[in-house]
# Entry
Amino acid sequence: MSNAIQPFLIGLFLPVLLAVAMTSSQWERLQVALFDSYPDLYVGNAPDTLLPARDVDGLAHNAGRDPAAMSRALSHGASMVEFDVLYADGALRVEHSLRYPPIPRLNPGRTLAQAWRELDGRADAFIELKANDRATIEALGRFLEGVNQNSIYVGSRNLRVLSRLVQVHPELKTIYLLRSSDFARFWRAEDTGFLAGVSIGPGLFNEEAVAGLKHRGWLVFAGPVNDVHRVVDLLDWDVDVVNTDDLSILEALRRSRPPFRLGPNGNVGRT
# Structure
């Protein structure tokens, strides 16, 4: 084989070999490094408390992607952990996006079931569906049958998928991931009574939008947000959950919560 052809073949097949050998966590980290899909958890400069005695949960953004991130989030006071989930390699995987090339790998990465066992009841779980295909929904249904749904929230941009999940699992708490471009259409929709809440991004960070959603009886998730001043605004507007990458914000939210609080069933919840 000529010396000119060897580098060409190496360049052609090396990415495929790496993709097969890499775990889902390693592949996702490479995607993040190349495309800045999401930031890692970090310690910012939030004050010790944000507002006194505010009953707001701190959601660690995408912290369920690996055990180290989850442990860091929990040690800094996260009361909820986000798991980005889709179906791949025959199981529900904690993955942010579909992997390319879409071929099975020797180390396909951790499953949602594995991540759930690692969480071990130390916080609530926010499962964000990154795919709404039949395989993902059916696998999620099987997963939900074997776990305590009181500590699980499921979020999606697809109202029909959330509605079908609630029909099968009436106690499930579903969260609609609302884009600012969909706000008017969503507001006019009549089939939203099954929702437990709505998640809003920066495009809907305003007092009027939050007040309207709260008036309908929904929990309001906000984020991801890493600006401390914006977090204070959100707390002033009475949001229920703040989604962040900043561990110091999670810590401040924990310190700001009252020492005892009642859960949805009247039971004393964790702080």
User: Anything to note?
Assistant: Residues 32-37, 262-271 have pLDDT under 50 and may be disordered.
